[in-house]
Amino acid sequence: MLDLLVLGGGPAGYLAAERAGHAGLSVVLVEKRAVGGVCLNEGCIPSKTLLHSAKVFEYAAHGEKYGVTAEGVRLDPKAVIDRKNKVVRNLVAGVKSTLKSCHVTVREGQGTILGRAAGGAVRVQVGDEVLEAARLLVATGSEAVVPPIPGVKEGLASGHVLTNREILDLAEIPGSLVVVGGGVIGLEMASYFNSVGSKVTVVEMLDHIAGATDLEISALLQKNYARKGVEFRLGAKVTGVAPGTVSFEADGKAETIPADRVLLSIGRRPVTAGFGLETLGVLVERGRIVTDARGRTNAAGVWATGDVNGQWMLAHAAYRESEVAVSDMLGKKDRVRYAAVPSVIYTNPEVGAVGETEESCREKGIAYRKVVLPMNFSGRYMAENERGDGICKMLFDAAGQRVIGCHVLGSYASEIVMTAAILVETEMRVQDIRELVFPHPSVVEILREAVHQLD
Ligand code: NAI
Q1: Most buried pick, 110, 187, 253, 346, via CB within 10 A?
Q2: Are 20 and 129 members of one domain?
Q3: What mean pLDDT comes out for the span 242-260?
Q4: Residue range 243-268: average pLDDT?
Q5: How many CB atoms lie within 10 A of CB 49?
Q6: CA atoms of 8 and 37, how far apart (whole Å)
Q7: What mean pLDDT comes out for the span 62-77?
Q8: How far is ligand 1, taken at its centre, from the CA of residue 405, in Å?
Q9: Could you tell me if residue 335 is inside a domain?
Q10: Do both 161 and 134 map to the same domain?
Q11: Is the CB of 180 inside a 6 Å radius of any atom of ligand 1?
Q12: CA 177, CA 72: separation in Å to the nearest integer?
């Protein structure tokens, strides 16, 4: 009888298994595809290695504005993919080794929940073996949404249409790439393929890109990419995909554009079916497992963390949710404070965001004050970004006492946002922030500047 069985070996699953194993519980982690899940194998990490190669290529090919010229610069997509695979291999090996050092047993194969044993333990079949555990953590993650648009299924079968999984293994640069869905995955991949020479068109249903991102920032990001040659078709509804083309309707007009490849990135949905969840009576609403603040489901002894509970669908939120769930299993008080979960879009320039946006403040009726500064207030930003037009927007409560949101477009935004998240999370008083010493010159100094600009 195990103390804990973890179903799914992505960030939510492996972190929970590590923490529980470290705390002395007997743990088995079941993974049907690859330890590390989507994040390590076909998401966060692979996309970042590709995007870094694109950045190196852009610096080399377009360094004139920094006084550097180079000839014959070329990007070898196969070498980029090989390096990505090496990074992934190393990280997956690292996770496996940490699991081992935490005394977690990993079972590779499909896990199927069979129901409960007489004493209430959860029974899970893996291959020929049936495991029994006092507790179950469901961390089965999410999968790409595939809409019932004519031609999409056939396109996926033929390789003309790709999801995040296949595109990260594409060892060729398509002449034209149509990205369906201008959210996080769509924009990061649009960024990569634009840098390496594809003609990229982003087709987005909404009137703006980047989902819930601050609208001023998303407009500026779009402007940056339009300058680099990405075409944006907003308010556009895809009506069909055929070999070599994508059709959509925008402003009441039908259009068909060429597409050597199509990336489908219209969102992801929790994986809740096909592994026996119903045998435990776990409550699933609108496709996601319903959990409380400690990751508990309605079924006794069953927790669900990460994408499968559909709350944030971010690896770092999954980590924290899993820590909290394991604390709960161990009888320790803990909770996730979602108000300060940062998010990043790893385009170039990057977007880093935390807390309230102006739009969310208006929706919730929160009175706020704001400071918006060009990133050029940072000397280092200016030194490193010729004609950079990034901004930092900081939102404060109405009294100007606390930071309630921060949105940055520019280099290092992905790192800067953590400092901002600490300010939001700890509710640090503005007068105390003003006393912090920031390294100079650094781009993160923009936060100090913004706080000083508040009257
Ligand atoms: P998303 O939800 O970020 O964006 C999907 C976009 O597709 C939305 O803007 C939506 O309006 C649009 N859309 C939906 N149906 C459409 C249609 N029929 N035609 C045109 N547009 C349509 O989803 P995405 O980009 O697939 O990412 C999935 C998940 O992965 C997200 O939850 C995201 O948080 C996570 N992720 C996070 C990353 C990061 O933190 N840097 C990187 C990549 C993914």
Answers
A1: 187
A2: yes
A3: 97
A4: 97
A5: 18
A6: 8
A7: 96
A8: 22
A9: no
A10: no
A11: yes
A12: 24
User: In the prediction, which pLDDT does 31 show?
Assistant: 98
Look up tokens 């959210």; give the residue. Answer: 183
Same domain, 69 and 110: yes
Ligand 1 site, residue 267, Cβ cutoff 6 A: yes
Tokens describing residue 225: 């990419």
Q: Are residues 160 and 219 in the same domain?
A: yes
Q: Report pLDDT for 455.
A: 84
| Contact of 289 with 303, CB cutoff 8 Å | no
Q: Tell me the pLDDT band of 122, cut-offs 50, 70 and 90.
A: very high
User: Hey, which residues does 31 pair with through a beta bridge?
Assistant: 108
Q: Is residue 289 domain-shared with residue 349, that is, in the same domain? A: no
Measured in degrees and rounded to the nearest 5, phi and psi for residue 90 equal: -65, -45
Is residue 190 in contact with ligand 1, taking CB distance under 6 Å? no
pLDDT score at 7: 98
Residue 314 CA: nearest ligand 1 atom is 34
Ligand 1 neighbourhood includes 168 CB (under 6 angstroms) = no
From the CB of 266, is ligand 1 less than 6 Å away?
Answer: yes
Q: Is 440 a catalytic residue?
A: yes
Indicate whether 93 and 169 sit together in one domain.
no
Q: Which of 362, 373, 347 is nearest to 452 (CA)?
A: 373
Lowest mean pLDDT among 79-83, 336-340, 434-438: 336-340
Last residue of a domain, one of 266, 291, 312: 266
Q: Classify residue 337: in a domain, yes or no.
A: no
Residues 159 and 140 in one domain: no
The angle formed by the CA atoms of residues 67, 68 and 73, to the nearest 5 degrees, is 155
Distance of CA 264 from the midpoint of ligand 1 (Å): 9
Residues 59 and 140 in one domain: yes
Centroid of ligand 1 to alpha carbon of 101 (angstroms): 36
Domain-ending residue, one of 278, 299, 329:
329
Is the Cβ atom of 182 under 6 angstroms away from ligand 1?
yes
**pLDDT averaged over every residue in the chain:** 97
State what percent of residues in the chain have pLDDT above 70: 100
For the residues of 110-173, what is the DSSP string, one character each? Answer: -EEEEEE-TTS-EEEEETTEEEEEEEEEE---EEE-----TTHHHHHHHTSEE-HHHHTT--S-
240 DSSP β-pair partners: 247
Asked if the model's pLDDT at residue 431 lies above 90, the reply is: yes
* Number of domains forming the structure of the chain: 3
What does 29-86 look like in DSSP terms, one character per residue? EEESS-TTHHHHHHSHHHHHHHHHHHHHHHHHHT-GGGT---SS----HHHHHHHHHH
Q: Which of 52, 103, 440, 452 is catalytic?
A: 440
Distance from Cα 266 to the centre of ligand 1, integer Å? 5
Residue 16 domain-assigned (yes or no): yes
- Of all protein residues, the one whose alpha carbon is nearest to atom 28 of ligand 1 is 267
For residue 93, the enclosing domain spans: 4-144+269-329
